[in-house]
Amino acid sequence: MQLRRLQNFRQLYKYLHTSEMSVEESKKKAAFAAVDNHVKPNQIVGVGSGSTIVYAVQRLAAREKEEGLNIRCVPTSFQARQLILDAGLNLSDLERESQIDITIDGCDESDVNLTLIKGGGGCLTQEKIVAANSREFVVIADYRKNSASLGEQWKYVPIEVVPFAWKQVKSKIEQELGGEAKLRMAKAKAGPVVTDNSMFLLDWYMGDQARDWFTVNQRIVTIPGVLETGLFVNMAQKAYFGLENGTVLEKAKPV
Ligand code: 5RP
Prior knowledge:
Helix 1 (about 1-40) crosses helix 2 (about 55-65). Helix content is about 35%, strand content about 25%. The chain has six helices and 14 strands. The N and C termini lie far apart (about 60 Å). The longest helix is centred in the N-terminal third of the chain and has 37 residues, at about 1-40. It has helices spanning about 1-40, 55-65, 80-85, 125-130, 165-175, 215-220; strands spanning about 45, 70-75, 90, 100-105, 110, 115, 135-140, 155-160, 180-185, 200-205, 225-230, 230, 240, 250. It has two domains: about 1-145 and about 235-245, Rossmann fold; about 155-230, Alpha-Beta Plaits, CATH 3.30.70. Bound molecules: ribulose-5-phosphate (5RP). The site of ribulose-5-phosphate has 17 residues, from helix 4.
């Protein structure tokens, strides 16, 4: 009996460990493919946030060393800034670069139109600004993020709000759009998560109904107190998804 329990435990551990490894591997493959296919010498590159972008920065640093790419990188968060500095890449910003050539960033979920939910890591506002000022916006993700429609796998839309107004925004969203908007709480600090912009986050659990995401986004951003939403509609041109079988799926925004 004891022995069987031990074997089951080992199997479970092996299963969890293996699937975790393949998720990381798929992130890396997607990130490397995007950097190799899109980034050219002397470009201004927007650098996204999250765990997948770490691999893209690794690849940018390797290419900088091998080819002398001479790129300048614009970060989308405190984390991205540190990644750029630690990798020895040239750090720039939006004041110096009026136009970014290409931005590469992760997502929490993408639908068939490459409409995205972003902001799982809480950096959505700066990510959206950098992407909106880029000629090309390319998404990198593992296979879990590739959906037919939003909400299939990721259940909430992050919304960055002015702390002063969080309760009013929460009520407005719930009354007008349904679902539940929860204040994101910190894990290693008492109280809510505070973003890079000193704001709060509402995670809006939007439910299962089909929605017109363009209209939903428009409605939420007009609520006083909302800084930005994690809905990226009509922004990404291309997505790279690392698949479980080790290949990379390239998806272009339908015309
Ligand atoms: C952070 C983001 C990230 O890009 C998104 O959460 C994906 O993260 P990961 O690469 O860790 O899956 O929007 O605000």
